[in-house]
Description:
This protein is α+β, with helices and mostly antiparallel strands.
Amino acid sequence: MGRSGAPGRPHRSVPSLGNIGMKQTPVEQTQVPEDGVHRTTFPDGKPSEEYTIKNGKEHGMHRRWHENGQVSYEISYYHGKMNGRMRWWAEDGMLYGQRYYFDGRPISKKGYQAKCQMIQGLPRFADEKTSNTLGNYVRRLRKAKREQGKMGPSAEQIEEERWFDGQCKAEAKQRTSKVLISWLGKGAKQERELGELSKSEAFRLARKLFGMGAVRIWVTNIERDEDGAQYSRRLIIALPDASPKRSKIYELCAELARPFIGGSAPAIRVGKRFMSVSLL
């Protein structure tokens, strides 16, 4: 289901979310569906999909499953629109990520919680701790990095690093990318969130990275909600030349890294001059 990561790096098969997004739902219909619970199953009888229609509109939790019985993803609907938390899992049960929606549009977690205070009927969600499979995944990332450092890069890996560095340079120049410190700066009146980090936590992370030798840090794929709040789940870091400093930066980022939505890219990836980090 997923694609391989860079040579020498661990990778996973992850659920594909298809075209699910702000303007589409998993249910494509040409007529008003019948009210009630709708279910489909795999040939062996295990659940494949389940959702509820109320007054002609989707309402409640929409779930799909992997064929092995593990939930693939779940999306909360409220009177026909995505409202609440969306989460997705790998076939082995590892939580890959989550995001929040209000009225069909992405919104930060804090922004959604604020909406819940104003609108009584919106779905509420308690924070849940993930299992230790995420910790195992991070440990595999570290082990692969150490083993790669001992063996040295192959010719193929050197060429891929060059390609990756070029991609990072191009991504940093996109309109949806900003220098991290500037993005978090005093002139930013609206809320800023970096993954699950608050603005102050993101500042502390930036100071640590610069203290370890990071040359420059960009935040990319910036999204905005209807209130003007901005949030991102991805960093591009220009790395120092010294290997010990690069290793320290990698170790710090490995604590925060999560596989990116869609699952085709590693949570953290390193080139010759740049590193990308996907955050939950």
